[in-house]
Amino acid sequence: MRILVVEDDRDLNRQLVTACRDAGYAVDAAFDGEEGHFLGDTEPYDAVILDIGLPKMDGLSVLEAWRRDGRLVPVLLLTARDRWSDKVAGIDAGADDYVAKPFHMEEVLARLRALTRRAAGRASNEVEVGRVRLDVKAGRLTVDGNPIKLTSHEFRLMQYLMLHVDKVISRTELVEHLYDQDFDRDSNTIEVFVGRLRKKMGIDLIETVRGLGYRIASGK
């Protein structure tokens, strides 16, 4: 899963990026509204953490512009604790949730998980397909109850496929959602990761759809 952090406070931006990467997300960062708006307009993020008080273009204007253009990416708004009006304005502008500063990083991560779950039509942090269970919160994959040790990229790939069960996902879409902007993207690495996952799990859960991509079928 790939997210965008738009926060002009560089220390807080760095903390958010570090926490999200440690939680298994691919993360891009922007430090003003114009940069954030451009990235959100041109890159396919699974969620955005967006501060209201941004230079060049404030967060509400960024959010309103995305919604006008039909961008449906889930947005978690960062607001000031004593400005209830900002929260109301943010929700009216199209925010999916908000958290007030100062906040605990665990709350931000929990709200991010909730946003990405809802976007995928899921109510739980756990996804189960046949003998395989994925726990998004714990960052754990098990087969028949046995934990499978995965790299961060392997887990992201498995998470994306399982959150979109029964849907054929192209290599291009996987690359766009698994890697941050600075990563040297090569769609051939997706085949490598799929091969490793199949070997580690010991079951043929990930189906190759010739010429289209990959799919995990709910009937497996």
From TrEMBL:
Domain OmpR/PhoB-type: 124-218
GO BP annotation list: regulation of DNA-templated transcription
Gene3D superfamilies xrefs: 3.40.50.2300, 6.10.250.690, Winged helix-like DNA-binding domain superfamily/Winged helix DNA-binding domain (1.10.10.10)
Keyword Amino-acid biosynthesis appears in the UniProt entry: no
GO cellular component terms, semicolon-separated: cytosol; protein-DNA complex
CDD domains: REC_OmpR_EcPhoP-like (cd19934), trans_reg_C (cd00383)
Keyword set includes Phosphoprotein: yes
DNA-binding region as annotated in the record: 124-218
InterPro entries registered for this protein in UniProt: CheY-like_superfamily, OmpR/PhoB-type_DNA-bd, Sig_transdc_resp-reg_receiver, WalR-like, WH-like_DNA-bd_sf
Modified residues (4-aspartylphosphate): 51
GO molecular function: phosphorelay response regulator activity; transcription cis-regulatory region binding
Keywords linked to the UniProt accession: DNA-binding, Phosphoprotein, Transcription, Transcription regulation, Two-component regulatory system
The protein's name: DNA-binding response regulator
Native organism taxonomy: Bacteria, Pseudomonadati, Pseudomonadota, Alphaproteobacteria, Hyphomicrobiales
